[in-house]
Design a protein that fits this description.
Structural class: alpha+beta
Domain Purine catabolism PurC-like: 26-119
Radius of gyration: 39 Å
CATH superfamily of the largest domain: HprK N-terminal domain-like
Organism: Glutamicibacter protophormiae (Brevibacterium protophormiae)
Helix content: 40-55%
Protein name: Purine catabolism regulator
CATH class of the largest domain: Alpha Beta
Pfam families: HTH_30, PucR
CATH architecture of the largest domain: 3-Layer(aba) Sandwich
Number of strands: 18
Domain PucR C-terminal helix-turn-helix: 442-499
């Protein structure tokens, strides 16, 4: 912003104050020339008005009325050109300026008004260059911050410091807001409330509103046409053109980060889906290799399969959100939070399968404040069929899948149902796993152990091996299958499967 003091220093003897040693540092928004009795119709306020004094120079009454009109229009400076109408400045003009607070400058005889205008634009060009260089430096620093591991924190902090105010980024998911400085944390609830006014689709524009008497601007962060969050800014002053350029740069950087995160989530979902598909189709070793190469978490040893009905028009995200509204039986663990975190998801033929880690199921974490579920989630919950399986090892998944689909087709809508334990299907998988083990004859060992009802001496004698060797084989078999062979329900199902296999 160009000031009257800068303009006087630039022009020297061609423009100087009428009744003080120096000009003030009042900002000047432009230079306007007029000889009208009332030029305020053509002024916006803040300009330096140049005149020869024709409308008021010879009358104290006219001078006071003229200066009052300028004051009402918020014109703070008047340049009086001597020569054509006035050879010197009348005292009544000085008095009128003092009374109204209009600063008076003199353009001496022979100095063209055009020189004042040219000086203003020279200063303005220099100011724009300085602002541009400063802005470019700030934007470069912000771009460098955007590639750091803590990019969101660094960019928000850099923006707040550049504006001399505060900034906050509110992601459009259950993640906490990023605020700088920390003293601005109290603005977050009001910013979230204001963000609800934005349309969720299309291309929404920024919103300006007041918080505690301070003007705040809220910008949507878009990736395509989807809102990924909001950037709130409060500077306590009028934003300059350079300020807005910096803010737009930050919005662009946050949009790029949101797009990168969107692509990462999509890639992880594809890899998780491929891993889950391999597990459900009986390829646990291949699934482990995919998970390891993709950098995913280690696959759980035991899972519960959550099967959900899925139609073509409902997004997976909405279906998972709807789980929180489903009533469940007292014997079933809560699944909503585990489902939201689950990476192993696979959709096939109208069914969404989620492989939930049995060890983590029912555990809760400190949930960060986020947005409310989408309005469609409640409607989805009323029509959603959901079935949760018993705990299964990864090897047992394929055998239990048909029974799980059958249970889902008959499950009531609007609640989470228990699929129960289908040990007959699992037992056939156990038999196949025992038969496939090549380092020892586990199939015969388990058969004789169950036939003799867990009596080591009788079973080892039937096998012709030492009882310690039998103990070792039974331990290996239990670890291989992930089951307790002394559990009556397990041993009964496995014994029947062994009999069918022998037949």
């Amino acid at each position: 912003m160009i000031t009257l003091l800068q303009l006087g220093a630039e022009l020297g003897d061609e423009f100087f104050p009428a009744d003080s040693p120096t000009f003030s540092a009042s900002p000047v928004t432009g230079v306007h020339i007029s000889e009208l009795e009332d030029p305020t119709t053509y002024l916006e306020g803040g300009e330096l008005l140049l005149t020869t004094g024709m409308p008021f120079g010879h009358s104290a009454t006219a001078s006071l009325a003229y200066m009052q009109r300028l004051r009402d229009k918020e014109v703070r400076a008047l340049g009086l050109g001597l020569g054509p109408w006035l050879d010197e400045v009348p005292q009544h003009v000085i008095d009128a300026c003092r009374q109204t607070g209009v600063e008076l400058g003199i353009v001496p005889d022979g100095a063209p008004f055009q020189n004042v205008s040219r000086a203003y634009w020279r200063l303005s060009a220099r100011d724009d260059t300085v602002n541009l260089m400063s802005s470019l430096g700030t934007q470069t620093a912000l771009a460098r911050a955007a590639i750091r591991s803590d990019a969101i924190n660094a960019v928000v902090r850099g923006l707040a410091q550049a504006l001399g105010g505060w900034a906050a980024f509110l992601p459009d998911d259950p993640q906490p807001a990023t605020v700088y400085p920390a003293s601005a944390q109290g603005f977050v609830p009001m910013l979230r409330q204001e963000s609800l006014r934005f349309p969720r689709t299309g291309m929404p524009s920024a919103s300006t509103f007041g918080i505690n008497g301070q003007a705040v601007v809220l910008y949507p962060i878009l990736a395509g046409t989807r809102i990924h969050g909001f950037l709130g800014v409060g500077s306590g002053r009028t934003l300059t053109k350079a300020d807005r350029q910096i803010i737009m740069t930050v919005c662009m950087l946050l949009s790029l980060r949101a797009r990168q995160r969107e692509l990462m989530v999509s890639t992880n979902a594809a890899l998780g889906g491929a891993t889950a598909k391999l597990l459900l189709h009986g390829q646990p070793e291949s699934a482990r290799l995919v998970a390891e190469e993709a950098g995913m978490d280690e696959l759980p040893s035991r899972v519960r399969v959550l099967a959900l009905s899925l139609d073509d028009e409902t997004e997976v995200r909405t279906v998972i959100q709807a789980l929180g509204a489903l009533p469940a039986g007292a014997a079933l663990p809560p699944v909503a939070e585990a489902a939201a975190r689950c990476q192993l998801r696979f959709a096939d033929d109208g069914v969404l399968y989620l492989l939930l880690d049995e060890a983590q199921l029912g555990k809760t974490s400190a949930a960060a404040p986020g947005q409310d579920p989408e309005p469609s989630a409640g409607d989805t919950a009323r029509n959603l069929r959901a079935v949760l399986s018993a705990p299964l090892t990864l090897a047992e998944l394929p055998a239990n899948l048909p029974a799980l689909r059958q249970n889902l087709s008959g499950a009531p809508a609007g609640e989470l149902s228990d699929a129960g334990a289908d040990f007959d299907a699992s037992a056939q998988t156990w038999v196949e796993a025992l038969a496939a083990y090549t380092r020892a004859d586990l199939l015969s060992a388990v058969t004789q152990y169950l036939r003799h009802r867990g009596h080591w001496e009788d079973a080892s004698r039937a096998l012709g091996i030492h009882r310690n060797s039998l103990r070792h084989r039974i331990t290996v078999a239990g670890d291989l299958l992930g089951i307790d062979l002394d559990d009556p329900d397990v041993s009964a199902s496995l014994w029947l499967a062994l009999r069918r296999n022998q037949g």
